[in-house]
């Protein structure tokens, strides 16, 4: 401890200062998580907060997927009107529906309907929570210092208002542009691609036209997702509620990206970028996986996972994939829980689970076949492994585009690709040195940061607990109406003055002219009449 | 060292990681400073870089004010066609002219002419540097890794382009909005006050109208200041040069403010906020000052300085001030190099120099009379001392407004204030507890940060040296024309389509109608003629 103290004194010699840490223990934090893969990032932050001595309560529906017990937090369980089977059926349908064939026009409605399978369930869960008086009483009496939530769905946001707590949001990017729309961060449509477009930040003219039009759909998405929650909020808060106004009360946005991955764009001072919190140090491989890796020889391994949300792949597609994997010399470790495809090649090993980050961190990792969820992408960047990306839903198509434009991977459409396409893509990212060089460059930039993102996340949550919010980071833009924000009233006023002045000048001139020439005319006339 | 190493391993337990530090020694940095108070912040960063083992060359005109020798850097001296006397005369005139009486309409031209006294001299200095072949040869042959400059005037920016070096800018805010205009950071006029307006971020309608109009003057200010430099740049680079394009190549903007002081607003990812680098730990007072402070008794002290640029105050004004200072029970330590006013009270001690930060850090400091330069303001915030602000030029009026809106100080117009005004302002900030509370709140927020600003500055300069720039932080906005950026071409195109469609529909309908009704008409007619 004395040693640590000594180290801290070296601030001026280049060691970063540990501001106030250690002093702040015992604050009480309420966590309102989002079940599913979103929870994985939040869990890491919550665990670190717990290690620092904070008292953490996680609000958990009695039926859930990943919100399990832990020594790091107390779970406050609330009842929901569905059972484990329904939950699993919904998640399974959600995951597997991504492999259904879809046409150009039917793609968007199918994607929307598929998302709603789980989103509707979350709404029911929220409704149940906000209607459970025992849980609400417990929350009111617990005297929390702050609330930490995933704002993709607004249950935590409503609860923060109900309990009068300052809040911190942890967010990746769906619904599209939520963080920018809410925090009044300018979002120029000319170089910031809207989500689902799969455009880069350098768009052609037709792409910019499309991006401009897609931009207007975002308001509609917000309406579809959130209008029901407004009624829920109004009922519990006993007043008319405008959901964006509630959202704007969030003190800090912890955003799960950085600008090695995301395109540079304007941001607001209460946005903190913590992309790569899950880029942990490589752990030791179990004997099973160590043996696979060692046996792979000079060709090394390929790691293949489509994430925790996808458990099955249609048989035909699985056989196509298995065929492709058999065409490369690398050993492929494939996380797959469905029925093994009958044509599985000798180099392909199916596993129910794999230590993804540790395998990617192994020097023998040659490529990573991923659905390009944000966690996987960052593990790929962190470990510098070129990717073949098979995006399925949500932000995954856009994530893949970002990696592709940086030359760090190849994207395939999982529904349309052939076995040949996948084999070629793998050979390309493994044999074309530029992919490895590019991902290594990204990896170096990503890891060269003044402070670890996980520590930054913990710092800002503690900051909000210490200061009961962060009002000094709230832009005055929030207090303006939309027309004031865009200075439309000022422009109107100035325009009125200019037009008024022009009109008056014209009238004066016209009047003057009439006076002069009119008189002259009359004079001439009278003169004429006199001379006659 | 082993101890330090042990401390670093504790990252996951909450200690911030020291990324790559220590590895990067021996990079070569060229520093192109701005003489005068701007140098004070830059010097601290340069010294810390030198302590970390970097080889630093500071480009210094042979005649200068503050760019003195140091063990921390090598000075590369270039000739200038003026002598020390002219330099001092210019700086003295610049400082003292602020006390000249000015009318409402003459204020702006007088301020402009006064600034040009020193700015013209800097231009001559830059001209001399860029024309000195020996210095240029030395710079070309020195193989620097990066260039660190104050971009308020563009000499360093031009040199970075000439030498093909990535650059880091250190900037406070003059010329107004330069950092935002150059880095394409949106700058909504509805809540971001333009400089010299002395508006806050919450403006009335008339203020928003004025702010909107002042906004257009900024382009004119840029033109006045920089047009001459464009010729200089074109001549040395042997091609037509657009200065904003050169400026945009800067990798990182180190901005000398934070959002405890500045109003929250949109920013870009290559902006790093390092307000308060000069907020050092309190040093030990010399015997002389210790004696003054101890003798002040229960009333404590007031620290008074108008900064390094002002050496004299007109006799009448000095007497008015001296009279006011005599009306408070505190001991006043006044940094003043002019002729002592004859009516100086017993409680007022004139000194040629004072350890400002150490005095403000003393528990007996009750108030700080300052010209509200950014260094002084941050020393006031850092030490939590309420301020009476007598702004003189540049950003000082706007700095004062920011402190005033936060209830941390009172602003007076030094030209118009009476002795009574100053005495009352001092009594207010000392006796009204809210001022102390507010400045203490700001102080706590300012100092509660995940990493020390000086370390952050050093980190980003080293980052640019390590990676030869930071292109991943450069927004694609820079590659768009102004009309593309604002999507005017897209809007025009869509408008043309809409209008075209409306026009065509109208024409088709008209044609159809003519066909139908025309025919009908003719049919009727022929029918008529037949019946007849």
Kindly describe this structure.
Two copies of one chain form a homodimer. Chain A is an alpha/beta fold. In chain A, the strands form two sheets. Chain A has a seven-stranded parallel beta sheet with strand order 3-2-1-4-5-6-7, sandwiched between helices. In chain A, strand 11, helix 13 and strand 12 form a beta-alpha-beta unit.
Provide key terms for this protein.
homodimer, about 525 residues, alpha/beta, Rossmann fold, 13 strands, about 50% helix, transmembrane helix (chains A, B), EC 2.4.1.17 (chains A, B), UDP-glycosyltransferase (chains A, B), membrane (chains A, B)
Radius of gyration of chain A: 30 Å
Helix/strand/pairing category of chain A: alpha/beta
Fraction of residues in H or I helices of chain A: 40-55%
Low-pLDDT regions of chain A = 1-25, 528-532
Content of β-strand of chain A:
5-15%
Number of helices of chain A: 19
Instruction: Please give the most extensive interface between any two protein chains, plus how many residues each contributes.
Output: A-B, 78 and 78 residues
Trace the largest sheet of chain A across and list its strands: 3-2-1-4-5-6-7
Specify the biggest β-sheet of chain A: 7 strands, parallel
CATH class of the largest domain in chain A: Alpha Beta
Give the terminus-to-terminus CA distance of chain A.
120 Å
- The name CATH uses for the topology of the largest domain in chain A is Rossmann fold
Q: Strand tally of chain A, please?
A: 13
Membrane topology (chains A, B): Single-pass membrane protein
Organism (chains A, B): Suricata suricatta (Meerkat)
Signal peptide (chains A, B): 1-26
GO cellular component, one term (chains A, B): endoplasmic reticulum membrane
